[in-house]
Amino acid sequence: MADPSPALVAAGWQPRVGALFATAVAAHGGDVDRFVLGRVAQSGVTHAVVATADGWCTATAEISEDAPDIELVPTTGDWVVLDASYEPPLIAEVLPRWSTLTRGDALGRAEQVLAADVDVVLVVLGLDRPRKAGRVERALALAWDSGATPVLVLTKADLVDPAVVEAAVTDLGAVARGVEVITTSARSGAGVAEVRATLLPDRTAVLIGESGSGKSTLVNALVGDEVQSTGAVREGDAKGRHTTTTRDLVPLSGGGVLIDTPGIRSVALWDASDGVARVFDDLEALADRCRFPNCEHRTEPGCAVLAAVADGSVALERMERWLLYIDELDEQDARRLVRARAAETKAAGRAAAKAARSLYEDRPSGRQKGRRR
Ligand SMILES: Nc1nc2c(ncn2[C@@H]2O[C@H](COP(=O)(O)OP(=O)(O)OP(=O)(O)O)[C@@H](O)[C@H]2O)c(=O)[nH]1
Ligand SMILES: [Mg+2]
Ligand SMILES: [Zn+2]
């Protein structure tokens, strides 16, 4: 691909995007006038706002009525191929993702994509709220599992005592092993340059965290302008009011892109065993030394994990949370398997019914979709 346009560079273009796009256009017959590269800046159910070389436009997203394949549903951050022969342009293809940040829905029963093609996940935590190690672990597990690198951002340092900041950094440092922790204050500007440095030269970061944690305020501090609305938290419990409602791509002048997201209430893990293993890499390493290879670290003799808890080198609660996440993911796997089997049985039933019908009916099979090509 020729040099990318400044507008695409501003949207976070990277060399690998050029390569993916070239491959996709070739697969579509190589019509370079018809197929245009873009990045989803805001995603809706049937349409998306897409950043292109010629500016931002609204494009149609055609989503299969039968089984919306999560890989194919354009989400904020996705690089896409637009078919410009349609008016408005149609998203013909979502380019293969290098990272997908997903979580389980509130019930932990379905996958929800939060952002795609991000390099950094800024896990934002307000220092004005009680610290919950479990929340941080879950967010970090999702982040690692996405393929991006997490950074923990503790906001609102100006609202609490320096001693509280220090305690938070120590406590959460033990939870966020191997993760950069940055303390910020939008009021004083402290830490903003450090966050900025994680985005250069052309990386995309998504901000995730509870409502009111200060995601949009941090976006504004990084942009140096009020591009995102922010909302005061409730007095008393400092809970947010869900000010941000869409996932928005925000380019930064000088390189780097942010994706601001609505506050999330629950952080359900989804197929994130690699992420959990990464967050608990110390416990995973201990588990390799247990006497029994299938040790579940509950009552077994010769358990290296329980030994580490007994000698105080691993906190009991941390180990308990680790086992809880493993159970949660195992249960999810079991449910998925049951559903997959049920879907197979149903599909086999449909195929059999169709075959039976076609013995009597003389008509072409396959539905025509009302669309060109
Ligand atoms: N004092 C102080 N207040 C902050 C800081 N960061 C954010 N706030 C305030 O916290 C409140 C919530 O901030 P938002 O940026 O709207 O929070 P959010 O995470 O985007 O919330 P949602 O969009 O609801 O998910 C606002 O009143 C901000 O002014 C900070 O560093 N210091
Ligand atoms: Mg917000
Ligand atoms: Zn063990």
Give the helix/strand layout.
Blueprint: H1 6-10, H2 15-27, E1 35-43, E2 47-52, E3 55-61, E4 79-83, E5 90-94, E6 100-104, E7 111-116, E8 120-126, H3 133-146, E9 149-155, H4 162-175, E10 180-183, H5 192-197, E11 204-208, H6 215-223, E12 248-251, E13 257-260, H7 273-279, H8 281-287, H9 304-310, H10 316-360
Parallel strand pairs: 3-5, 8-9, 8-11, 9-10, 11-13
Antiparallel strand pairs: 1-2, 1-4, 2-3, 4-5, 6-7, 12-13
Helix pairs in contact: 3-7, 7-8
Can you give a write-up of this model?
The protein is of the alpha/beta class. The protein folds into 3 domains: 6-94, OB fold (Dihydrolipoamide Acetyltransferase, E2P); 100-260, P-loop containing nucleotide triphosphate hydrolases (Rossmann fold, 3-Layer(aba) Sandwich); 280-350, Ribonucleotide Reductase Protein R1, domain 1 (Orthogonal Bundle). The chain is built from 10 helices and 13 strands. It has helices spanning 6-10, 15-27, 133-146, 162-175, 192-197, 215-223, 273-279, 281-287, 304-310, 316-360, and strands at 35-43, 47-52, 55-61, 79-83, 90-94, 100-104, 111-116, 120-126, 149-155, 180-183, 204-208, 248-251, 257-260. The protein has a 6-stranded mixed beta sheet with strand order 10-9-8-11-13-12, sandwiched between helices. The chain has a 5-stranded mixed barrel with strand order 1-2-3-5-4. The chain has a two-stranded antiparallel ribbon with strand order 6-7. Helix 3 packs across helix 7 and helix 7 crosses helix 8 (281-287). The longest helix is centred in the last third of the chain and has 45 residues, at 316-360. The model is unreliable at 364-373 (pLDDT under 50). The structure holds guanosine-5'-triphosphate (GTP), magnesium ion and zinc ion (ZN). Guanosine-5'-triphosphate (GTP) binds at residues 155-156, 158-159, 185-187, 209, 211-217, 230-233, 240-244, 262-263.
